Structures are given as C-alpha cells and as structure tokens.
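Sample pair:
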Amino acid sequence: MIRSILAAAALAAGLFAAPAAQAQATLDAIRARGSLACGVNTSAPGFTTLDAQGRYQGMVADLCRGLAAAVLGNPDRVRFVPLSFATRFTALGAGEVDVLMLTSTHTLLRDTQLGLRFTTYYFYDGHGFLVRRDSGANRVRDLAGATICTLQGTTNEQITSEYFRSLNAQVNILLFAEQEQVVQGLGAGRCDSYAMDASGLASARAALPRPADWVILGERFSKEPYAPVVRRGDDNWFDIVRWYVSALIEAEERGITAGNAEETRRTTQDANVRRLLGGTPELGQALRLDPAWAFNAVRAIGNYGELYNRHFGESTPIAMPRAQNDLWTRGGLLYAPPFR
C-alpha cells in the first residue's frame, strides 16, 4: 500500500514538473531554433496586417521584431504565427508560439484560469461602438434592436451583451472570427454597428470604402489594457518580455530613438542611460541576455513614441490621439519602472 501511494505521488509530481520544465526552457528553445515564434492577428490595421508583399506591418508586428532583436540580436529572426481571437490562448498554452503579442486584454479570470501570464501593458483602450454617421444613433442606448457585430472569443462580446441586458433591451449580436469579416459586414449592411475596443473601431473605419460615413460614439464601457502574454512557469522569459516593453517606454522618456541610439550609447554620461543601452552588463546578466538587448530593440524599431506614431499617429489613416497611451510626464499612463 505504502509503495503504491509513493509511486502515485511520484507520478503526479512528474506530471506537474514536466510542463514547468518545458516552460522554463523558452529562451533556450528560441536560441536553439534561432527564431522567435510570435502570435499575431492579420486583419487589424495599426496592429497587424499583411502588405502587398506579404510582409507583416503594424505595432504588434514591430513589437515582435523588437523582441527578436532584444533576444537574438536580429529583428528579422522572428516567425509570425497568425492566430484568431478564439484560438490564441490555446495556441500559446500548447507551445505553438513563444509569446502572444496580438491585442489581448488582461482580466482576472484570464490571468488565473488559463495557465498564462500577462506581462506589461503596451496599449490602453476601451470598449466602444462604431455606427453610420446618418444612423441617428447619438448614444449607445439608441442601438436597441440593432444588429451589432463583434469578434468571437473577445471580451467585447461579453461587454456588449451585459450592457444591453442591463437596459432590458434586445439586440442581435453577430459574431465573426476576424475583423476583416466585420468590415465586409459593415460595408454590406449586415451590421448596424461594430462593438470593439476604440483602436479596433478606428482601424476598421480606416478600412471601409468611405471612412467619413462612419463615426465612433464617444461613450466607453470598459478598461482594455493590452499586454504580451506568455506561459506560466518560466519566470526568466516573463521578465524578459516585461522589461522589453518597459525599455521601449523608458527609451522614449530618455529621448533615445532608433536614429540616435548608437551615438547616445557611445557618448552618454548618464548612468541610467548607460545601463539601459548596455554600457554596463548587469541588466543583461539579470535577464540572461546580451548587455545590448535594449539597445538592439530600440535601434531596430524605435522607442514607444516612434512605434505609436508610425502606426497610429496623425499622419496615418487611423489618426488616433495618444491620450492614455502617452507618457506619464504628459498626462498618459505609460510609466516604466527604474532600470537599475
């Protein structure tokens, strides 16, 4: 009996230890294969799309490249893995990707029930509604009885249902797998409204044939902080991804850009900047990375402000004000912990 109990305990311990050991090997596995497997979506202008040459573009795509530069020293050593919102967390948990970079809201249940960990926020958003300008809807409650389209497997589906239920109002919720399908539904008249985070609404509007015919209602119904997601059980990899995002924010605050990173690294006398750019080795050693990990990332994709302006700035079709996605010194929510 005792031998049976001990054998069962040993087997259980082995079952629990195997996933943990596998998770702990993320950085080593990336180095062994020579590339980062990065989970993205493919139909969200501003975040990720494919251009005419089949190259991934957008903030999420660049975040993947910057992480590859930080870990492997080369932004091109990344393998993009397109995922739907419905399958993204399963794919990450199964080891199909090393990091989930596509827009994923950090919630309590996701954080505690999926065997995953959310790292540092790279984008703050909120749930809203897109309608035709001539629809007569000035408030979201005016959409009672409408057909509202949203994406399956997102928090937006739940938020939309709960809001109209609180009003005791009926709506027809139509679910799609990809935003590109929603855009087609809006254009074809299948959807009276699109319920999504405001950034998604702005990118969808930019993709419509006549963007000026559509308006995003001003009300917001949720907090939607996006963060890269990794598997639980690998503290080193969690730290790398968390501090990588923070380094892009810190670089903007310190005035370090893709264009001046090399000169700044060579000439700066600021101890904080020297540590950040690898002039001293301790930060890289703490993360098991090259001392120049943050320097390589910023030189490859720029600081956070450059990244945002390139894909969401005033000169882009989306033209979304930074607002909460600005630095804390300018009234935004972006704040990097000290690099020391």
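Confidence is low (pLDDT under 50) at residues 1-21.
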